[in-house]
Amino acid sequence: MELKKHQPPMTVEEQIENLKSLGLIIDNEDEVKDFLNDISYFRLIKGFSIGLKKRNDIYNEGVAFDEIKELYLFNANFRQAIFAQVEKVEINLRCRTSNYFSCKYGIFGYEDASNFQDATYHAGFLKDVEEEVTRNRKAPFVKNFQNNYETGKLPLYAIVELFSFGTLSKFYKNMKSEDKKAIAQTYGVGYTYLESWIEHIAFVRNISAHYGRLYNVKLAKTPALYKQYSKQGISSMRVFATLLCLKHVLPDDRHWKDFVDLIENLLDKYSHVKIEAMGFPENWKEILIK
After folding, report:
1. What secondary structure, in 3-state letters, does the chain show?
2. What does the pLDDT look like over 59-82, one tens digit per residue?
3. Is 217 a residue whose pLDDT tops 90?
4. What's the mean per-residue pLDDT of the chain?
């Protein structure tokens, strides 16, 4: 197979002309120019034209720049809404994990490989933690433990605050089954599900933190879903599966209902959004607040 040649750079004006040559309707070139001066052509066009044109072909009839812009803005707002919920899960899981583990194994029990399932996996975890401590050595609480406490080491309840969500996920995954089960019970779920959901949520969190695309994308890290959802044809590869994971680990309270209402408002505001592109079934709201 012959490899493609890289495209030469284009000015914003040339980008607009290229889009017009591909059949994209542009009603106000000045507005488009302003938008492309803020959002890169590659980020906007390559990511949000999917489904609006065939690969290496012209746009479907009637597709306008405003539609692509709307999908981009929806994705940005949707991503921020999800990130706020993921933050709650991350902070909550740090708390429950460190409290349980410290009480059972001691505040430095995280250093002992015998408290975990896999010693090799644990060694990698300690290396990651050491790097995080070094990176955050100027943080006041890190300096406090290192300078004012015997051994200078950080207890789990403090060092857990340096964990990325990915590191936290790895920590939970390598815990003994009985310990994972004890923490999962505080959420009212099975530990195999919680382990899968945490990994998935951490993956989506990284996409969100780097301003990535959640709209119309197949997610590489998929969660295990309850059979009740699989039987309804809900895909684990689309972002609606993420919402289901969040539903089961966050309190079913006013804040969750506010979040669901926010998603509904975003869908109402951005009319070009296709809910099926995110794996939403028609009765998605009923499922999320049931």
Report:
1. CCCCCCCCCCCHHHHHHHHHHCCCECCCHHHHHHHHHHCCHHHHHHHHCECCECCCCCECCCCEHHHHHHHHHHHHHHHHHHHHHHHHHHHHHHHHHHHHHHHHHCCCHHHCHHHECCHHHHHHHHHHHHHHHHHCCCCHHHHHHHHHCHHHCCCHHHHHHHCCHHHHHHHHHCECHHHHHHHHHCCCCCHHHHHHHHHHHHHHHHHHHCCCCCCCCCCCCCCCCCHHHHCCCCCCCCCHHHHHHHHHHCCCCHHHHHHHHHHHHHHHHCCCCCHHHHCCCCCHHHHHHC
2. 999 999 999 999 999 999 999 999
3. yes
4. 95
